[in-house]
Recover the amino acids of this structure.
């Protein structure tokens, strides 16, 4: 009987410790939606910083490139890279592996 009571008390103690740890772990999740809402309210930036407000001293505006022109350049770059990969697969050499393409989008 003593062994049964000891096992029962140890089990209850383990459940209480698990409940306290679970409550502490989930307490931080209540604050996370606030940060998500705040991030959703900010304007989206895709690989660029937010546009700066024009100053009186420097009234130069950045040149805006149409999306179609960017897509055309990216497609041309992909075609050139695929052609370079195919030429390497046809004749694999060190020179063809490390040769540069004529693409303008090279690092």
């Amino acid at each position: 009987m003593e062994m049964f009571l000891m096992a029962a008390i140890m089990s209850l103690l383990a459940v209480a410790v698990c409940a306290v740890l679970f409550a502490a772990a989930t307490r931080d999740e209540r604050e996370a939606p606030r940060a998500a809402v705040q991030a959703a309210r900010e304007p989206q930036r895709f690989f660029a910083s937010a546009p700066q407000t024009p100053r009186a001293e420097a009234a130069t505006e950045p040149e805006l490139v149409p999306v179609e022109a960017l897509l055309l350049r990216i497609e041309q770059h992909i075609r050139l890279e695929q052609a370079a990969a195919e030429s390497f697969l046809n004749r694999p050499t060190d020179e063809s592996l490390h040769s540069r393409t004529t693409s303008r989008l090279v690092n």
Remarks:
- Helices lie at 2-27, 32-41, 67-90, 94-98.
- Residues 9 and 107 are 66 Å apart (CA to CA).
- The two ends are 76 Å apart (CA to CA).
